[in-house]
Design a protein that fits this description.
This protein starts with 7 loop residues before the first strand and ends in a 25-residue tail after the last helix. The chain contains six helices and eight strands, in the order E-E-E-E-E-H-E-H-H-E-H-H-E-H. The longest helix has 17 residues. It has one domain. Helix 1 packs across helix 4. It is of the alpha+beta class. Helix content is 29%, strand content 21%.
Length: 229
């Protein structure tokens, strides 16, 4: 697999359950590719994490059940996306918490049905806003909101049209919604990645994102590389 700057990596896990009185737990996740490691061709991504809370840039060497979404961005837009992600990482002004994510998810419930009037109104009134990767104060932002916001901003920087399947507020860009929209966009290429990296490591279930829990355990690994667990 040859990764390109500006590619979106999505994790959509339908096992996620959202119930009142429980700790908010979602296994959805979104990351944006900003480079590729030359030695092993692994994608280098920018994504929001809980551990520690903030924006992280790292190479993804192992993983499973991802979807890569690619749009026909030109090289200038792709480089702008990467530059904005690096600037945001250096500023260290973005953060995330489970409580914030739960509030954001609850606000999105009325828009999750594709036929809901709320979602139709938000789509009709969509207007992209410039995202500031170096805000003056600490700003809470989710993984999907970060990915969608910098893509919107990079496209607007060069006066490029926003793909139809990305034309909604970044706050609503949960991974399942992004994937469903991309699958219905003729200009988007969606590639299922059963595995990223060596299957040898994945078999041990120790190094991959969204590693499955062993039976009998009620909580996820506290040192999980993925923020949304």
């Amino acid at each position: 697999m040859i990764y390109q700057k500006g590619d979106i990596l999505l994790k959509v896990d339908t096992r996620a359950i959202f119930a009142r009185g429980t700790i908010f737990d979602t296994r959805h996740h979104a990351m944006v590719v900003i480079d590729t490691q030359p030695q092993n061709k692994c994608p280098i991504v920018a994504h929001m994490t809980f551990h520690p809370p903030g924006l992280k840039i790292e190479a993804i060497k192992h993983g499973k059940d991802w979807h890569l979404v690619r749009y026909p961005f030109d090289d200038k837009v792709r480089q702008k996306i990467a530059d904005m992600a690096v600037a945001a990482h250096e500023a260290q002004k973005l953060t995330i918490s489970p409580a914030f994510l739960e509030r954001q998810y609850n606000k999105s419930l009325s828009s999750r049905d594709p036929f809901s009037r709320c979602k139709q109104n938000k789509m009709a009134a969509f207007k992209a806003q410039i995202f500031n990767p170096t805000p003056p104060a600490i700003t809470e932002i989710s993984c999907h909101e970060f990915v969608l916001a910098i893509i919107h901003s990079a496209l607007m920087e060069y006066d490029k049209p926003i793909p139809e399947s990305l034309q909604f507020p970044p706050v609503l860009g949960w991974s399942d919604i992004l994937l469903e929209a991309a699958l219905h966009d003729k200009n988007a290429e969606v590639i299922h990645l059963p595995r990223i990296g060596s299957s040898l490591h994945m078999a041990s279930n120790q190094h991959g994102f969204f590693s499955r829990e062993q039976e009998g355990k009620a909580s996820t690994r506290p040192d999980s590389a993925c923020p949304i667990l």
